[in-house]
Design brief:
Elements lengths: L2 E6 L9 E2 L2 E2 H18 L3 E4 L9 H11 L3 E8 L9 E5 L5 H15 L5 E6 L3 H5 L4 E8 L3 H9 L1 H15 L13 H4 L1
Helix pairs in contact: 1-6, 3-6
Amino acid sequence: MIRIGLDPGHGGRDPGAVYKGRKESDDALALSLAVVEALRSYGVMVGESRTTDIFVPLQQRARLSNEREDDYVISIHRNAFEPETAQGVETYVHPKADPHAVSLAQRIQNGLRDLGFTDRGVKMANFQVLRETQAPAVLVEVGFIDHTKDNLRFDTKRERIVEALAGAILEQAGLSRGVGRVELSLDDAI
């Protein structure tokens, strides 16, 4: 059976980006919890780096995933730049990423772009959670928290964002979203 690791960014004493009282850590956690519920409804085993507003060090996030032996890891974030200037979605992989991570990143990117987010592309970065996680890992920035239009998309299309993320993960893993729920193992998908 496949195991997915979900990592809602920031938390606790690290709120991440903050704009007009809105915290990245809250948005990332709420979105992650909804994706976890969607994946579990398809019989997928899901491990989480946090389920409440607590601080989890980056090293521990990677270690938790490695100990669980996740098959894929998705770290969920919101972006920020200068208020009301940048918008869109971008998904990151490590420069030495496994091809499965690149494929998952592209699926996530396409799914969120199709919901109206500006497509900022799949990019490479040496983020610790990508570098130290043994499983194919991606980090997705679901819109800019400091842009009104991205926040409106994030709020009004939340269910569709959850579907896009869960759908990309299921599709990447070769899992069916049909009535029979999960029908293939990870070995069948690779």
